[in-house]
Amino acid sequence: MLLCCLAVQTGFAQRVGNSPYSQIGIGELVYPGFAPNVAIGSVGAAYANGIFINNVNPALLVRNRSTAFDVGFAGGLKQLRTGQAQQRDFNLNLNYLALAFPASRRWTLGVNLAPYSAHQYESTTRGTVIGSTTPALYTYRGLGGLNAVSFTNGVTVFRKEDGQERLIQDLAIGLQTSFVFGSITKEAVSQVFADSLIGYNVASVRRTNQSDLVFKPGVVYRHRLNDRVYWNVGATYDISRDLKGKQFSSIQYRGQSDGEYIELVPLDTVSATTRLPGGYQLGVSLEEPLHWALAADVTFRRFSDLQADNQLGALRNTFTLGVGGEWTPDWRSIDSYFKRATYRFGLNYSQMPFSVPGGGKQLSDVSLRGGVFLPITPADRRSVSYMNLSLAIGQRGTLESNLIRERYINVVFGFTINDFGWFLKPKID
Predict the structure, then answer these.
(1) Domain regions of the chain by residue span
(2) Which residue of 41, 263, 302, 329 has the fewest CB atoms within a 10 Å radius of its CB?
(3) Banded model confidence at residue 368, pLDDT cuts 50, 70, 90
(4) Are 20 and 8 in contact, with CB atoms under 8 Å apart?
(5) pLDDT digits (tens, 9 = 90+) for 252-285
(6) Terminal CA-to-CA distance of the chain, rounded, Å?
(7) Closest Cα partner for 291 from 330, 323, 325, 324?
């Protein structure tokens, strides 16, 4: 039913970040990884390097042995098209703030603020008032989403070393506890033209406020293959949870300007419950630390679990495959700045939870990824800082059955700061 609704909308209003596929439930889930994960194909279940913060698998937080701070911004340019209508949108937002620090030799703590889901769309269609010839313009829009404040613990439960205290193998577990909260507003606005000069708007508005705790455990195993190369295997599990909240409905009478309120008529306030889709992620990586890495992840998510009182139709379970790698020519180089940089590349294929109406194929999202990790300050014994840049070029959706195709260029950029002196007690000889 959702895509049938999308198919009949013949035009798009100019709105930053318009994403028609975010109409259902809590909107589109936002990938939890930071800029380095995005650049390497959106993998992270078994991939980390101990410099940036891994927000995909909480068990990998133990790789951060210094105090690390990450901040990132996300922006994008997209072209939306359906039939003969098309639109271009641009958006730029703060994407994440994260801090991690070692509490002991085998225990690292972390806290971050990041988006959990995004719900933003606007579309219009022209018609007439039912039972008359009076022209009308119908606008459907949504705004809002959910955010997550997350507290993460990563602990090494087993570690084996050789006589030189070099790692042979270890096993780590982690748990991310997130407080998910936010507000989502849906509007259906009818603009009726009584004559050629005067018009008024009637809006049916539904705002849903929800919040609850969400848990994600993770595990990772690391094994040394030879003096330089390690392989890692990891897994995470997103536990399906119910978000509790309230839904407020009202009718708003507005003037010619859609935002000019004349009268608001409250309708009702009811309890709202949304079942979040559960899922799990498996990953494997091969690495020579601070030189190169290859990684691959598969993710399964049960969108059929998603239950919401405003759900428009059944969703399908999804599968995602991400592969990628990174390469640092020589992180200790003193004669070449670009040899100390890290270069990343990747591919990502994701099924969307929607299908072509009438039992057709499941929609997909395919993208090519890349990025660079640029040192800002020379490496020393105290601190090291990097600038992160990742780029994704892709396409999702389809023009089949008059649906919507999105072609996009997404950019995530930010900064990583590592300080090796925080939380260390000074020693006086």
Answers:
(1) 2-376+388-419
(2) 263
(3) very high
(4) no
(5) 887 766 666 677 788 888 988 888 889 999 999 9
(6) 73
(7) 330
